[in-house]
Amino acid sequence: MGTLSGIADTDRRVIVLALARMVGAAGNSFLIVVLPLYIASDLIDVSALLGTEVGVGAAAVTVTEPLLIGIVLSLFGFLNSLSQPITGRLSDRIGVRRPFVLIGILLLGTASGLYTVVTVYWQLVVLRAIQGFGAALIIPATVALVNEYASADADRGGNFGVYNTFRLIGFGFGPVLAGAVVEAGPYDLSPIGLPVIDGFDAAFAAACGGAYLSFALVFLLVRDAAESSEASDDLSIRVRGEDRLLDPVFALGLATVAMGMCIALFATLQNQVNVRLDQAPVWFGLQFAAVTIANVLLQVPVGQASDRIGRRPFLLAGFALLVPTTLLQGIVTDPVVMTLVRLAQGVAVACVFAPSLALAGDLAREGESGTTLSVLTMGFGFGVALGPLASGWLVGFGFVVPFAVGAGLAVVAFAAVVTQVEETLGASDDAGAAAAD
């Protein structure tokens, strides 16, 4: 009930933007399930690539089907995260957000539709790269709009909680729908004058349609905030703090990289987890989804509570909880316990997500929301992209090793927040009172 009432009390512009992101996220997350199946099918010619070696000597790597899948999936994350500071800064420089969101959605949707005509692997790589850049246009601009829609610091956490809730609903349910769409194919559309299409083309069309629906919602119902008309001249990302080693937003960005990695370590270890826990694949699906479920339930209450209590207590609690919940994934041997541990890790992430964005929004100067908030969105995207690659390598040293390394990174993240990040809620009021005295 707290989540529903919180959404009802939220600025309608934030809800519309969140709904648009939910539809777009659902369409894009279709591809997480569909692309690996597509590459493994006989519809894409990868025979010339399989078995070849890339690199020299000890660094040589044999090209396998899983490697080709990993490249396509990771490419999106790396291009998306590494481009966000550039696109966020550009939106600040120009002083608008909406055109970036619209162009990004068009790139995502059009590329999804073009997958239906792809026949060779390099074409998949090109389209996925285009989608990664499209996402980089969307994400900094949307979080900047959510930040600028806040009428005061006391609304910011709640706004980000609602935005993240809808986005995660779309991202979480997209893969489930994608699997169902592919499995139910082919589809006989002759009664409406169209040819028979297979499950893959139906999934790509659905992803494309979701993106275009998201485009329509943003085009018709979303406008730039008044603040975004003020372009900024100083758009550098600050690394050093004024009175401490690191700028608080940069420190929180580094901590967010660690959080993203801790979440994503689990993703590539499905076979190892199922064997170790002696569980059916359905258990892995539930365990994987547990983090998202916890976030959907807690984003709004945590975001609104951070508007009352403060940002820092939730950040500290979240990163502290992230340490044991990451390590335990490499230790537990029972499916139910693993599900509970993943659920607890979702609670940790929920404590960080909205408060961290709200804290960065508190610190962002006028006209710099895109640049400032992109530090966090880039950090999370980079961590999520790096996590599967890291776990795939580290698990060769022992099942617990990826999770132990992740827990160690979470300790470093917790230390960074403790030493480099101060409370921002009410700081401007305190500064104003001090100046008056």
Describe the structure.
With 437 residues, the protein is mostly helical. A two-stranded antiparallel sheet has the order 1-2. The protein is globular. The C terminus is likely disordered.
List descriptors.
437 residues; mainly alpha; two-stranded antiparallel ribbon; 1% strand
Q: What is the overall pLDDT average?
A: 84
Determine the fraction of residues in helical runs and give it as a percent range.
over 70%
- Counting helices, strands and paired strands, the structural category is mainly alpha
Radius of gyration: 22 Å
Reading the helices and strands in chain order gives HHEEHHHHHHHHHHHHH
Strand order of the largest sheet: 1-2
What's the overall geometry? Answer: globular
How far do the termini sit from each other? Answer: 43 Å
Number of helices: 15
Indicate the low-confidence ranges by residue numbers.
430-437
**Number of DSSP strands?**
2
Q: How many strands, which pairing sense, and closed or not: the largest β-sheet?
A: 2 strands, antiparallel
Strand content: under 5%
Secondary structure elements and pairings:
Blueprint: H1 2-8, H2 12-40, E1 53-54, E2 61-62, H3 65-94, H4 98-114, H5 121-149, H6 153-184, H7 199-221, H8 248-264, H9 270-277, H10 281-308, H11 312-327, H12 335-363, H13 369-394, H14 400-420, H15 427-436
Antiparallel strand pairs: 1-2
Helix pairs in contact: 1-10, 2-3, 2-4, 2-5, 2-6, 2-7, 3-5, 3-13, 4-5, 4-7, 5-6, 5-13, 6-7, 6-10, 6-12, 8-12, 8-13, 8-14, 10-12, 11-12, 11-14, 12-13
